[in-house]
């Protein structure tokens, strides 16, 4: 992910900005840049590659100035070269950006028609052009910023300087985080508090939809309509920690909330945002030729694989055999070298998954590994590594790794569909467009459902047993909902395919057994509603997680209805994962369990 920092104060900033960027290096990047204003002149230095290259440039061509912004770029739109590196300059406006501007190509066409000349291939440059246009039209800087924010859609953190105002930095957040640091006659901003730790530990976190105007004396924050909002200042512990919780109570909460940003980072590896296509990955696996895929993993990673099975079979007509690794490794499955195998593991060290990999390797299959830890054993032993790029996951209960595993699996299924000729170019573009929407929709959903999940968790905590139901890709999600709830709240929970209800679990239904039904308004909706009807008829309490269409279509009484926006089937598992994660999280917090380190569980399971 890109990293952002800014300083407005009373001493030279260039060196300190680069220092702060160094503390964001863990996020990954491929170019870097810094801009300052001095004596009314705004200048920048940018360099491809590591920060060392930027520092070398700065040692030759110094950048004076007591106000500046800086950026490490992880390429999304356009190759990682100096021209595409941030800050982007247009007519006295400087912009750095983390995230995706979804409607950049429409905006770019509009600006091109007005005569704008683009220097880079980035989506970010449209922001600089829009700001320049609104300034030309006579808006003051804050008004230009708000006008721009009301035109762009996507998930982003944006930071802006105007050459004719050497006292002010403006910024906005919708998705990726931004932390404001309060110094003495100086103010700072950064992608996280770790970047600002050497300067200050007094931090204000912006929330989605905030626009801030920062001078050396302080910060004023409004919403996008210009209405003032107030955000608390808190003391950060980041100085002592390399990975910190930010303004969250637990790592798990932080990891849930960082999903919009993390997903766009992961997607940028698999998707060409500008071209609307998937980037072909993993040459060692020839999806066009393989007869079938064998998929194996444990726990949450297995459930991601189960959702992947639906995608590979639907989009690529590629049969998938999937099993939990502890069974897969011993069930003596017949294998042949015209198959390929995929192993999914956050840690990349899970003993059963590794043993399954070795079993397939021996049978001569091409091996793919979907992992978070790239240096892990599973990654090292695979022929093709598909990183999920989720960053360190500290909470034992997997959240962001799950949705990133899904994002990778969806991209690979589309890649396989194209390779096998089962998806047309137009199908690919339509599916990729939905993937690109995902970070924005995730931000919206997290904001939308949080209060409801918090209050619902109080009711849920009174029960001893919970049933989760779903169909299609919502079935593995039901399993994941149950797993998440039981592992951190210790409430007994089971997930079932909704169609299996009548084949046994219906015997359990009574007023003491809440049934959580995951049912977006998809091909299976009507059938799932019939199963809900069966629950309602037996006095069962229903918690209905659906979308706007689903909520309008069902009239059944529920204990709670959680309404999400309507999204395409290809992204609904990632979107519907958010309320189930939040529900498990808040229930556990309410019940006072050790959320980040639930009893008896380990993050990396290296024994059988
Ligand atoms: C559940 C969870 C576990 C892991 C499982 C596999 O929240 O985190 O079920 O998914 O232990 O671990 P990895 O992905 O490291 O192989």
Describe it:
With 608 residues, the protein is an alpha/beta fold. 37% of the residues lie in helices and 23% in strands. The protein folds into 3 domains: 3-240, 4-Layer Sandwich (Glutamine Phosphoribosylpyrophosphate, subunit 1, domain 1), CATH 3.60.20; 244-423, Glucose-6-phosphate isomerase like protein, domain 1 (Rossmann fold); 445-593, Rossmann fold (3-Layer(aba) Sandwich), CATH 3.40.50. The strands form 5 sheets. Strands 3-2-4-1-10-9-11-14 form an 8-stranded antiparallel β-sheet. A 6-stranded antiparallel β-sheet has the order 5-6-7-8-12-13. The chain has a 5-stranded parallel β-sheet with strand order 18-17-19-20-21, sandwiched between helices. It is globular. The protein binds fructose -6-phosphate. Fructose -6-phosphate (F6R) binds at residues 298-301, 345-347, 350, 353, 397-398, 483, 487, 604-605.
Using only CA atoms, what is the Rg?
Answer: 25 Å
Largest sheet, order of strands side by side?
A: 3-2-4-1-10-9-11-14
Helical content (DSSP H or I, runs of 4+): 25-40%
| CATH-assigned fold name of the largest domain | Glutamine Phosphoribosylpyrophosphate, subunit 1, domain 1
Helix/strand-derived class?
alpha/beta
Average pLDDT rating: 94
């Amino acid at each position: 992910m890109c990293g952002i920092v800014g300083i407005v104060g009373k001493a030279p900033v260039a060196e300190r900005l680069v220092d702060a960027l160094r503390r964001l290096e863990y996020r990954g990047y491929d170019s870097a840049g810094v801009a300052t204003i001095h004596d009314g002149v705004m200048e920048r230095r940018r360099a491809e590659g590591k920060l060392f290259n930027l520092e070398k440039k700065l040692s030759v061509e110094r950048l004076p100035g007591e106000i500046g912004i800086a950026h490490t770029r992880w390429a999304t739109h356009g190759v990682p070269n100096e021209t595409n590196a941030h800050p982007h300059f247009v007519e006295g406006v400087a912009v750095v950006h983390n995230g995706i501007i979804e409607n950049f190509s429409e905006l770019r066409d509009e600006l091109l028609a007005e005569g704008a000349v683009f220097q880079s291939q980035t989506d970010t440059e449209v922001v600089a052009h829009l700001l320049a246009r609104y300034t030309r039209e006579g808006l003051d800087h804050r008004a230009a910023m708000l006008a721009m924010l009301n035109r762009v859609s996507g998930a982003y953190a944006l930071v802006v300087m105007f050459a004719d105002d050497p006292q002010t930095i403006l910024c906005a957040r919708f998705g990726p985080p931004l932390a404001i640091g309060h110094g003495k006659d100086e103010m700072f901003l950064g992608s996280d508090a770790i970047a600002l730790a050497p300067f200050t530990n007094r931090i204000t976190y912006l929330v989605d939809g905030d626009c801030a105007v920062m001078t050396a004396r302080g910060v004023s924050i409004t919403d996008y309509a210009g209405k003032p909002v107030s955000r608390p200042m808190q003391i950060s512990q980041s100085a002592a920690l390399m990975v910190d919780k930010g303004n969250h109570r637990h790592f798990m909460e932080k990891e849930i909330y960082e999903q919009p940003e993390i997903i766009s980072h992961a997607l940028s590896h698999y998707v060409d945002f500008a071209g609307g296509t998937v980037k072909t990955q993993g040459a060692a696996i020839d999806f066009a030729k393989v007869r079938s895929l064998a998929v194996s993993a444990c726990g949450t990673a297995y459930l991601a694989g189960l959702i992947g099975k639906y995608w590979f079979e639907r989009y690529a007509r590629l049969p998938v055999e999937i099993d939990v690794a502890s069974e897969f490794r011993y069930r003596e499955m017949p294998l042949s070298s015209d198959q390929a195998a995929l192993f999914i593991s956050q840690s990349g060290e899970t003993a059963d998954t590794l043993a399954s990999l070795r079993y397939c390797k021996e049978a001569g299959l091409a091996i793919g590994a979907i992992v978070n830890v790239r240096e892990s054993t599973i990654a090292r032993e695979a022929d093709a590594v598909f990183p999920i790029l989720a960053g360190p996951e500290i909470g034992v209960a997997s959240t962001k790794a799950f949705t990133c595993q899904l994002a990778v699996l969806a991209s690979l299924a589309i890649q396989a569909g194209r390779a096998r000729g089962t998806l047309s170019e137009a199908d690919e573009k339509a599916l990729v467009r939905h993937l690109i929407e995902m970070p924005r929709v995730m931000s919206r959903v997290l904001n939308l459902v949080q209060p409801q999940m918090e209050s619902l968790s109080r009711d849920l905590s009174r029960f001893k047993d919970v049933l989760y139901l779903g169909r299609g890709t919502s079935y593995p999600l039901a399993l994941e909902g149950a797993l998440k709830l039981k592992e951190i709240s210790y409430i007994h929970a089971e997930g079932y395919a909704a169609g299996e209800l009548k084949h046994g679990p219906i015997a359990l239904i009574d007023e003491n057994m809440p049934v959580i039904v995951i049912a977006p308004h998809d091909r299976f909706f009507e059938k799932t509603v019939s199963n809900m009807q069966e629950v309602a008829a037996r006095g069962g309490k229903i918690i209905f997680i659906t979308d706007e269409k689903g909520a309008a279509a069902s009239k059944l009484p529920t204990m709670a209805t959680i309404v999400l926006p309507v999204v395409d089937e290809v992204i609904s598992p990632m979107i519907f994962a958010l309320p189930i994660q939040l529900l498990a999280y808040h229930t556990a917090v309410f019940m006072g369990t050790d959320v980040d380190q639930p009893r008896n569980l380990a993050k990396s399971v290296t024994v059988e």
